[in-house]
Write a structure and sequence with these properties.
This is Receptor-transporting protein 3-like. This protein has 3 helices and 7 strands. It is α+β, with helices and mostly antiparallel strands. The chain has a 5-stranded mixed beta sheet, covered by helices on one side. Strand 5 and strand 6 form a beta hairpin.
Length: 164
């Protein structure tokens, strides 16, 4: 799964003025605590989940993804750290947090939106707004369940879909 994110990211970052950018998944990053020189971008997207305990499957339209990103101009190296917030299964009652599974199309849309933020912040560009929407191929059963959402428990699960 990390390779899928990295491959799509490399395609987006290829044209960034000779700087070399890398992406890494990092579940230790905390929203609002990105550190000096780092920027934050939070996006909400559709994803699927599979319970590892009871095999229940579900989809969610509000899966939070936190990006922390920085550019070391003197070394021409940029770094993006990504945290994908998890959810618990409501059926089996276990406290096991499950990783979201995003479609490659939705990863692409998220990273395109992130690239816009990077271009504005570090390159002084103003790219046009993306007209691409997230792809949803599933069924959402009822409202968002805050009791089972890691992002809600962390205080960052917002009603809006995008902020930073």
């Amino acid at each position: 799964m990390a390779e899928q994110w990295s491959t799509i990211f490399r395609n987006h970052a290829a044209g960034l003025r000779g700087d070399q950018w890398t992406l890494e998944l990092d579940d230790s990053i905390k929203p609002g605590q990105q550190g000096h020189g780092w920027n934050q971008y939070i996006q909400s997207a559709f994803a699927d989940f599979d319970c590892s305990m009871c095999s229940h499957r579900w989809s969610s339209g509000r899966v939070q993804v936190v990006f922390h990103f920085t550019l070391n101009s003197s070394l021409h190296r940029g770094t993006v750290k990504v945290r994908r917030f998890r959810q618990e299964c409501r059926d089996c009652g276990e406290d096991q947090m499950e990783e979201p599974s995003f479609s490659s199309q939705n990863i692409d849309v998220m990273l395109e939106k992130l690239m816009k933020k990077i271009k504005i912040r570090f390159y002084g560009e103003t790219p046009p707004d993306s007209k691409r929407d997230f792809y949803f191929d599933g069924r959402i059963e009822g409202p968002h369940e805050s009791d089972h959402c890691e992002a809600c428990k962390s205080g960052i699960c917002q009603q809006g879909s995008e902020y930073y």
